Amino acid sequence: MKNSIKVTVHFSYQGTEYAPSIQLNLDEWMHKKNALPALDLLLAQQNNIDTYSYLYEVLQQGSFVYDQAQGLAADFCHEGTFNPEAFQQAWHQQQIEKQLARIAEQTLGIHSLQENQDIQQALMQAWQAGKASCK
Fold it and tell me: How far is CA 22 from CA 32, 39, 43, 91, 127, in A?
């Protein structure tokens, strides 16, 4: 399932209420940039708000609301808030686990690492040792 979330920012400027929003494909950003984008800038660009305007400055101070989270993102979206740092960390962990599952299936013929906790743990330790040796 894809990871996505809707982001809306509510603010008032010169007596007018605004609520620009975007539906964000989190997987796309994580694969492309390895991080989530600056949401204020993305909201402005996607809603035709000049980033050199007072309207943009007010948008930056607005109330950001997160909802319609799908996939792993749903675990980090609660009552209109979203924890992007925790999501990013969990997303990276999920990607590692997917790679390890592919290795286990291709090399060892194991179709479920959850059923083989010892092998899963050994593969994870090997992954971490390899990562540490690259520093």
Answer: 18, 9, 6, 21, 36
46-71 pLDDT, tens per residue?
999 999 999 999 999 999 999 999 99
H or E element that contains 123? helix 117-133
Is residue 113 within 8 Å of residue 123, measured between CB atoms? yes
Which burial class, exposed, middle or buried, applies to 96 when counting CB atoms under 10 A from its CB (0-12, 13-18, 19+)?
middle
Max CA pair span of the chain: 65
If you average pLDDT over every residue of the chain, what do you get?
93
Helix (H, G, I), strand (E, B) or coil at 135: coil
Q: What is the 3-state secondary structure (H, E, C) of 49-111?
A: CCCCCHHHHHHHCCEEEEEEEEHHHHHHEECCEECHHHHHHHHHHHHHHHHHHHHHHHHHCCC
pLDDT confidence tier of residue 112, bands split at 50, 70 and 90: confident
Q: What is the pLDDT of residues 19-47, one digit of tens each?
A: 999 999 999 999 999 999 999 999 999 99
